[in-house]
Amino acid sequence: MQLPDAEHLVAALADKIKQLAAREPVALVGIHSGGAWLAERLHPMLTAETPLGALDISFYRDDFEQRGLHTQIKPSHIPFEVEGRHILLIDDVLYTGRTIRGAMNELFDYGRPAKITLAVLVDRGGREMPVEAQIVAAKLDLSPAQNLELLRDENGVFSFKLNEKN
Amino acid sequence: MTTHPQLNKNGELQHLLSIEGLSKDMLRHILDTAESFAGVSEREVKKVPLLRGKTVCNLFFENSTRTRTTFEIAAKRLSADVVSLNVGNSSQSKGETILDTVDNLAAMHADMFVVRHSQSGAAHFIARHVAPHIHVINAGDGRHAHPTQGLLDMFTIRRYKPDMHNLRIAIVGDLLHSRVARSEIHALTTLGVPEVRVIAPKTLLPECVDRLGVQVYHDMAQGLKNVDVVMMLRLQHERMNGALLSSAQEYFKCYGLTPEKLALAKPDAIVMHPGPMNRGVEIDSAVADGAQSVILPQVTYGIAVRMAVMGILAGNTQ
What CA–CA distance (Å, rounded) separates B220 from B101? Predict the structure, then answer.
């Protein structure tokens, strides 16, 4: 299948986020790894006082019993007060909604945000949780056997890779 | 593949009994995971839900305040239920065997045992006995090993001196009775520290210590020269009823770390001690409380490292 151009979608996402940030102050929080890359890219486009953070939800996954702690875990880093803030949560691909549930659980351990808005590059359907994104750059229809991955090369350029599971 | 008492059939860590036998990648994975847990302890809510519903049993057949407390805090920050038993005071004195104690706690659905015992090999013994879903962590066994102390020391060194391939490290004091020193030496050599020195009087060195890949010194003036890290050991004087030393005062004169002796190390050298300290015996208060001391950060990092070990073990089921 023809995959969308990732850089094209990032530009579309940036436009929507700039509109939101112009209306009210937000704090950007990206989910490792893809969401954190996107947040890093989007951050300089917003006003200088916009805070930036990153979450690694490994300690909040609901499949820890099956998967354990094997993969490389990056420290979560939220260098600002979460209490009372409007958090703009950013991820690359929205699928089952389980990652977002974990991310929201983790965010609340930093404080009680006033509001959380979810922005994603791609909504690929297949939800298992009542989670929806308010800002979506593109919708794709993928089968459960397909895994869409966001890549970033050494120059910081984004692309998509589609992996087929056997 | 030879069977390794710490690994499950997939080659993953099932128990943590000693640093000996763990690969560089495994040590690094534990230390990297601990970096993420260090952040948890700095948050408003110092807890993650990883071990929710699990029961961790601290089985201390030998007294310890710091190690038991940090294991307890680590398990609680992982949301586990924690039971701490000073077994020396209870059933053991009524004649119950170790394995009976363990079986009884397993019957109460304990998922993990943290074991401290004065006999070398006690944690191995328990690990061989328990059901496959149960994990065992050695929190110090006799003179053999104290792996989480060794790991938290590595974590501390890496925080202050990130390039471990370029370090000169001295371990000073009672190596003969020290399980900490043994764990430290294995960890340092596995992680690729090029120069590990041990400094001690001949009577406090184990035989064949040089086979562990360390350089042996008997004189602080030579041994401390240009080192990046000074790792002091506790003088185990409660175990020293023989003629190994003439007096604590004389020991301090020769091997106690004073500001004058520390000045021989690199100017930015850090000073470590596993605790509890004997001030005025192996370490001068001016050094213990001085700018180069990282003794209290060691305690703080101990929680993150123990969280990492418990989290990794709990995720590796057979």
Answer: 45
